[in-house]
Design a protein that fits this description.
The chain is α/β, with parallel strands linked by helices. It has 14 helices and 16 strands. Strands 1, 2, 3, 4, 5 and 6 form a six-stranded mixed sheet that branches. It has a five-stranded parallel sheet with strand order 10-9-8-11-12, with helices on both faces. Strands 14-13-15 form a three-stranded antiparallel sheet, with helices on one face. The chain is globular and about 70 Å long.
Length: 424
Amino acid sequence: MENIGHGGKEIVERVLPKDAALKRLNELKAAKAKVLDVRLQIATEVIDIAYGFFSPLEGFMTKADVEGVCNNMTLADGKTVWSIPIVFDISDDELKKSGIKQYDEILLTYTGNPFAIFDVTDIFTLDKKEIAMKVYGTTEDKHPGVKRTYQYQDKFLGGKITLINPPKINEPFTRFWLTPKQMREKFKEKGWEMIINHQTRNVPHTGHEWLMKGAYLGAYGSMMVDKPRGGILVNAIIGSKRDGDYIDEAIILCQEAQGKYGYFREDTFLTTCSLWDMRYAGPREAVFHACLRTNLGCTHHMFGRDHAGVGSYYDPYDAHRIFNTLPKGSLNITPIFNLDWWFCPVCDEVTYMGLCGHKDKKASFSGTMIRSIIQDGVKPPRRIFRPEVFDLIMECAEKYGFGDAFVTEDYLKRRNPVFTIEPL
């Protein structure tokens, strides 16, 4: 499988081997290069850029790129579809204190350890309110993506990134984090010609299970069945957490359990994770997910009801409609649009909105209902949760969540970080 990613560009890892990295670090120290220590959000995006998750981006966006994304949903070239700004913010005070200027080569550190080299080619300002309106469709700071935008500092730096100190991915995430190139190698090993991605930030109930099975049946129907020629990739989003989110450990381990306990054949099912702080941008984030999963080597991507939405900011199917607005051929991935799955007591099974005629009898998999089941801790019928999955949620709550399957202030303070940067 060729390593051609989003926009038809080859995926290039901007990561130096250790010997070359040590040499460059010594050169920067000798030249008394300016140093910036970055927060977790920026560190996460440095990693994503360096390994090609955000291909064809080679660094943080310049002003021209941000304006293209906001106004036209493309990069500055006017052709490459991109829907969410990827920016490096810095305060006026820090900019003055550091003395950073255009064309400087900066050493980025994380938790005090050398991390990456940042070639600054642009220093600029942005209208945060305008960005919020164009990307999220609202200026209300109750929207988590808007709130995040308003928290950006006064200035922004654009330019290329080179990673000199790769992250150490900590347990239990170690085996789930694969770079785009590693992901493609895994698909090749499995003999998969068709890869359907399931985007998730949740633990799986049977509604999710059938969402995946329905997409698989729909996409796989035209392929020969003499051997497994395709499968489902669950690519869980692991990133910044809000109170009430599912804890990351429960998300990834419970997704894996669906294959481990036979609800999917292991040769047609794979669980991985990507580092990304959800923006809850609804339709715009759906497009971003399509770009991201193209880089992972996926051929199909499923989009369900209220994909990547929050509250009532978007119509439940806005994330479907936005794909009709994109130029033909601008995405090298096939969207699969799903309606609701629910439990029907008349059909006596989990079924699909497009098929079941008992809408007035349906029992929907509402987030509120699912959360109450987990919080009660009483094992529900297997039609709602597979028993092994539910038991694992409870185990994760005790082992990783300090007694809770949902994010709490205590969890955020005490959890083991997803990745660390060690001394070089």
